[in-house]
Design a protein that fits this description.
Keywords: Membrane, Transmembrane, Transmembrane helix. By secondary structure, the protein is of the alpha+beta class. It has two domains: about 35 residues; about 55 residues, no CATH class. The protein is built from two helices and two strands, in the order ααββ. The longest helix has 24 residues.
C-alpha cells in the first residue's frame, strides 16, 4: 500500500511540475503576466493548515508507533518490597 501511494504521489508531482512549466513559464512568451491573487494565497495557506490539522489528528488518535511497556522498579529491604522507585523503559 505504501509503494502504491508513493508512486501515485510521484506521478502527481510530475504532472503538477509540467503544468507549472506550461502555464507559468510559457506565459511570458505568449505575452501574458501572472501573479497569484490574495485569494489564491489564502486558499494555499488554508490547504496547508488543513493538512497539518489532519496530520496532528491522526498522530494523536491512531496508533502510529507501538506503545512501550514499562516495568516498575522497586527497592527491596530485608526481603520486603519497599516503595516504588522508577519506571524503567
Amino acid at each position: 500500500m505504501g509503494v502504491l501511494t508513493a508512486s501515485l504521489l510521484v506521478v502527481a508531482g510530475v504532472i503538477f511540475n509540467r503544468m507549472n512549466v506550461v502555464f507559468t513559464g510559457m506565459a511570458k512568451s505568449a505575452g501574458g503576466y501572472y501573479f497569484p491573487t490574495v485569494w489564491e494565497f489564502l486558499i494555499t495557506i488554508g490547504m496547508w493548515s488543513a493538512l497539518i490539522l489532519i496530520y496532528c489528528f491522526i498522530a494523536e488518535n491512531f496508533p502510529i508507533l507501538p506503545k512501550e511497556e514499562r516495568k516498575a522498579t522497586y527497592a527491596y529491604s530485608s526481603g520486603k518490597r519497599a516503595d516504588f522507585i522508577t519506571a524503567d523503559p
